[in-house]
Amino acid sequence: MERPGVALLGLDHWYAAFDLVRQAAESQHVRLVAVAHDDAAKAEQVAQRYGAEVATTDYRAALDRPDVRIVVALYSTDRHAAIAREAAALGKHIVGVKPMALTLEAADTIVAAVQAAHVHYFSLDCLGRLNAETRRVRQWVDDGRIGRLLRFTHTLNGSLPQAWPDSDDTGWWTDPACVPGGAWIDHAIYAVDTARWLFGDEPAAVSGYVANLRHTDLALEDYGMATFSFAGGVASVEDTWTADRGYGFSRSELIGTHGAICLDAGVSGKVALRGDFGYDGWVSLEPARGGGGVLDHVAAVVRGEVAPVATVVDGRANLAACLAFYEAAQRIG
After folding, report:
1. What's the Cα-to-Cα distance from 68 to each of 63, 150, 317, rounded to whole Å?
2. What order do you get walking across the sheet with 31-36 strand by strand?
3. What whole-number distance in Å separates Cα of residue 162 and Cα of residue 14?
4. What is the pTM of this model?
5. Contact 172, 219 (CB under 8 A)
6. Distance (Å, rounded) from C-alpha 196 to C-alpha 203?
7. Could you tell me how far CA 225 lies from the centroid of its own chain?
8. Where do the H-state alpha helices sit in the chain?
9. How far apart are CA 159 and CA 38, in angstroms?
10. pLDDT 10s digit of each residue in the chain, 333 long?
11. Do residues 272 and 264 touch, judged by C-beta distance below 8 A?
């Protein structure tokens, strides 16, 4: 079977773009056809490095190619809804930037276009569902190893984003015209999806705080803390841009009725376990395996071999939860 062609539309979210073009270049199931970006030199640089056939400043030239079946749309969020609708109308399957839109109204137009065209849409905020470590934790929860899940807590202390590697410019991430929020949503949207996935439910209510604790001149917050209530428990999600560049950390905890899991990804790299595991305390485990890359997953969905781990509705639900947080949050500092 011929491998479906992939077009990368936009390098604005270069953090994700570089990983996804690498996935495409290394994949046995898809092939990288085109890279489009407003900056011709950057498009050409990425296309040459990863073996794309075409580099262009016109995303429609890549989108219109008949050999392109999957598009990775990574222009800034404010541009995404229109591009996603165009892609869906042409029957292209879509991997989309996070967050998927500035407003729920714009997100609803993406949902409608995707569903009308019967194409698959994977929002990058759902990446945890393909991450081997997160999938292992989800299986532990489903197996009842910590009893019923009561609380999920996520903390990420990050630094200001960069418009391009080694750049001092923070780019579109700190422009209120391009994004619905700042430091909090930048990474918290991933944790919001993980919380929804772990609890198997939508949040019933949310409260929290935003602030500019370090970067007081930013138009958007550099700190946010949210508390979401679910029917069966609570999720707290704290995300920042207050770390020095290169010195952030990430930590997640799951508390159940009969145990706990703590993932210390940024400090020790170890896992603390208590429950039905056969041991308690801090341990080093063999890396989890399985899950695979986003593009191979989307290709398998397109071939009808697997069910999607997430759909366009999940991207919309994650955005809805994040916007509800901003509406409820009090400003401090």
Report:
1. 7, 44, 28
2. 54-56, 31-36, 5-9, 68-73, 93-96, 121-123
3. 9
4. 0.95
5. no
6. 7
7. 18
8. 14-26, 40-50, 59-63, 77-89, 104-117, 132-142, 183-199, 294-302, 312-328
9. 26
10. 689 999 999 999 999 999 999 999 999 999 999 999 999 999 999 999 999 999 999 999 999 999 999 999 999 999 999 999 999 999 999 999 999 999 999 999 999 999 999 999 999 999 999 999 899 999 999 999 999 999 999 999 999 999 999 999 999 999 999 999 999 999 999 999 999 999 999 999 999 999 999 999 999 999 999 999 999 999 999 999 999 998 888 999 999 999 999 988 655 567 888 889 887 877 776 666 666 799 999 999 999 999 999 999 999 999 999 999 999 999 997
11. yes
Query: Which tokens sit at 186?
Result: 């930048």
CA angle (193 as vertex; 176, 226 as ends), nearest 5: 60
Fill in the amino acid letter for 255: I
Q: Which residues contact 30 (CB under 8 A, 6 or more apart)?
A: 3, 4, 5, 6, 24, 70, 295, 296, 299
Question: Can you list the domains of the chain with their CATH numbers?
Answer: 5-127 (3.40.50.720), 132-290+312-331 (3.30.360.10)
